[in-house]
Structure formats: C-alpha cells, structure tokens
Specification:
The protein contains 8 helices and 25 strands. It has about 425 residues and is an alpha+beta fold. The strands form 3 sheets. Strands 1, 2, 3, 4, 5, 6, 7, 8 and 9 form a 9-stranded antiparallel sheet that branches. Strands 10, 11, 12, 13, 14, 15, 16 and 17 form an 8-stranded mixed sheet that branches. Strands 18, 19, 20, 21, 22, 23, 24 and 25 form an 8-stranded mixed sheet that branches. InterPro entries: AraC_E-bd, Cass2, Glyas_Bleomycin-R_OHBP_Dase, Glyas_Fos-R_dOase_dom, Reg_factor_effector_dom_sf, VOC_core, YobU-like_regulator.
C-alpha cells in the first residue's frame, strides 16, 4: 500500500445534502495544493460556517465534474458542510443534493501537498484489481476532528471516490413498488384511500386487476391476483430492472426464477424467490419514472417508509441481498434483528428477523410514515380501522399496526430524532 494510506474500503453512502461556497478551479502543476485557490477558499468558508443552519456532520470538499470537464481541466469545487435541511442560505452560498451511491473510501494521513499520492494509489493500484470501475459522480474530501491542518503530518482525511461494479448489474437497489394482495379490489382501494385521506380513482378500478397509488420513490400496488391463475406468485415488492432479459439471465445464476419474463407493451417483469422463500419481482418499464406528490387529508402520509422481508439467518440473508444488488455487506450490522439494504431512493429495504426470533405467526409487509403519531392514532380510531395490538414506543420510533380487510398487517410509524 502506498505511503500515507491508512485504509481503503468500499461503502455505500446514502443521499446527502450540503451548503457551502463554490468556486471554479483550474488545476496547475506549478502550484502545490497548499497554495492553490482551494486552500484559500477554506479559511473564508470556515469563518462563515456559523451562518449555516441544520449542520449535520463534518466538512466536505466536493469536486464537481460536469459533462464538459476534461482531465486536468477546470471544474467546480465546493467547501461545504452536511445539512439536514437547506431552508435558508447565507449570502454567496449554495445548496446541493447528491444521490446515494457506491464509493471507494481512501483514508490517508499526511500534509495536503501529498494528497496526489492517494489519488495515484486509487487509479494505479487499487482500481485495476478491485472489480470496480469509476463512475461519474461527485468526488468527496471528508474532514473531521482527525484533520489538524494542511501542514500537520498527523492530519487524517478521507477521499470518497465514486465507483460501480465493473460488470453492470441489471437490477437497481431500489424498491419500485410494494404489493398488497387483496381479494376485493374496490374494497381495498376504498380502505387505503380513506387511510391516506385521498379520493378513490374510479378510472383505475376499470383498468385491470391492480389499483395503485403513485407514491414518491415507491408506489403502493393493490393486486387482486385476478390475472395470475390459481396459484399466484404473490410478490412482496418489485426491484427495478435495467433490462428484463439481462435480469432473467442474472437471476438464473443468483436466485430462483419462477417464470420467464412476461411482456405487456412498455412493461416486462418476472418473479423470483430469495433463499428464505420470499417471492419478489424484477420489473422493467419503458415509461418515464415519475412520482406524484399526493396530498391527503390524513396524518398518515401517502409515502412508504420501508418494506419488510422476513428472514431467518440475518448474516446469510444480508450477504445474499448485498451480492444480488452489487453492494458491500455492512459487517457491523449484519447480525442485527433488522438490516437495512441500501437503496438509491424510495422505501427502505428492511430484512427483518424479528418474526422468526419471536415465533410470530404473522408478517408485516411495510410501514407507512406519519409526522404526528398521536394524530395518526386518533385518526384510525375515529374512522374505525382495526388495530393489531397496542401502540409501541421505542427509543428511535413509535408505531402501531393495522389489519386491512384481507388481514394484511400494515405498520404506521413515526421516527424520532
């Protein structure tokens, strides 16, 4: 390993938002990093960090390479801090949002003028033998309390460089839609519409065996299974497929496909099983991926916070889903009763061992979000929804479960903090 390199790892970084000051930077071999415009930017920015609200973490140096950028050419650089909200911007500053993605994290120690060693290590040593390829995205310098200054040889910083699997995986780590299987489509549509305080869309009840809610990130699909024969597969949710034929070949190697792809115009899908017997769907759509902003008259938001997958051996299941989606396994959390598989956006993908550990005879399909737990609880009681047990309160959330007319168990939760 190159001098000054402490560690290299592959991690998933969730979507993040920053506020900071941006400049256009032109690299020069004649000017060392300790004397360039980026170094002069940081003291100006550090003096004004106190003007930024909702700061949520360390400092970020962000290199933004647009499509017009060429190696060695000018690019945008931003000195910034992570924020939980960007509702007000100090004068001369800007906000930026970056989607989740895979990164190679190179942790280095040394003075700033030696930073080039870390980049050469990444490009010349690590990347060629890693099984990954560089992807377009933001390059991140992360500074925290370990960084003592540009001239201090004990300073530690992290370089987050965007990567992807060298062999493209035809499945996205995103839950495009969550299924709830019902026997009476109209009854279910009316029940869930009332839950969200939304009107029933009559035209959707006349368009086939499903009724759907265009929720942000992950749609909710009520499926009557009327078109699925006597033994419907009943998938829990769908994963987005980049190419359905490539996904089918891939799943023949990684999982248990239950059929060849079905094609219906601009839609193609197939069902498959995971090692615990859960049925899932891979789905490709030729239509634009759009989300509606639903405004309901209910404290229960028309938004899916997460979908659950019942598993028995968490480490094995977490490893399987991570490999399936080309993600690193989070070793620290791989033995927890709930494991969150990283997703690009939409509902969280939650592997849940609690049903197995508790010997429960039920499953929980998903959880819906509320920003006012007591108001949500009062709403369901007022409208006669059936509660499944008593509300529960934990250190990080409060929740209650409902039973829909078909006995499907749905959780409503408010996160704390």
């Amino acid at each position: 390993m190159a001098a000054g390199i402490i560690n290299t790892s592959v991690v998933w970084k969730d979507a993040f938002q920053v506020v900071g000051e941006k400049i256009r930077f032109t690299p020069s071999k004649d000017v060392p990093p300790s004397e360039n415009e980026i170094t002069r930017l940081w003291p100006r920015f550090n003096e004004r960090v106190g003007e930024i609200g909702h700061v949520a973490g360390g400092a970020y140096g962000l290199s933004l390479f647009g499509p017009e950028c060429v190696p060695g050419g000018p690019f945008d650089y931003m000195a910034a801090v992570s924020v939980s909200e960007a509702d007000r911007l100090p004068e001369g500053m800007t906000a930026d949002f970056f989607p989740g993605g895979l990164y190679c994290v190179v942790t280095r120690q040394g003075v700033i003028d030696e930073i080039g060693t870390a980049f050469r290590y990444f490009w010349e040593e690590w990347l060629p033998q890693s099984g990954y390829a560089y992807r377009n995205g933001v390059e991140v310098e992360y500074y925290d309390e370990r960084y003592y200054g540009n001239d201090n040889p004990e300073s530690v910083m992290e370089l987050w460089i965007p990567i992807r699997p060298a062999n493209e995986i035809p499945l996205r780590n995103r839950v495009g839609g969550a299924f709830i299987h019902v026997t009476d489509l109209r009854r279910a549509a009316e029940w869930y519409s009332l839950l969200f305080g939304l009107p029933v869309r009559e035209e959707r009840l006349n368009e086939g065996p499903v009724y759907w809610f265009d929720m942000p990130g992950t749609h909710l699909i009520l499926d009557s299974d009327a078109a699925n024969g006597e033994s419907p597969a009943r998938p829990r949710f769908m994963l987005d497929a980049l190419d359905i034929d490539a996904a089918y070949r891939y799943l023949q190697e990684k999982a248990e496909p239950l059929s060849e792809p079905e094609r219906h115009g601009q839609l193609a899908f197939l069902n498959f099983r995971d090692p615990d017997g859960n049925t899932l769907m891979a789905c490709w759509s030729g239509e634009p991926d759009t989300d509606s902003v639903l405004q309901g008259n209910s404290p229960i938001l028309p938004r899916i916070g997460g979908v659950f997958v019942d598993v028995k051996d968490m480490r094995s299941a977490a490893g399987w889903y991570s490999e399936l989606l080309g993600l690193p396994l989070d070793e620290q959390n791989a033995d927890d009763p709930v494991y969150s598989v990283p997703v690009t956006r939409g509902a969280a993908l939650l592997l849940d061992r609690n049903r197995y550990l508790n010997g429960d005879d039920f499953t929980e399909l998903l959880y819906l979000e509320t920003e006012d737990f007591e108001a949500a609880l009062a709403y369901v009681r007022e409208h006669g929804f059936q509660l499944a047990g008593e509300p529960k309160h934990f250190h990080d959330l409060s929740e209650f479960a409902l039973l829909d007319p078909d006995g499907n168990r749905i959780v409503v939760a408010q996160m704390k903090g």
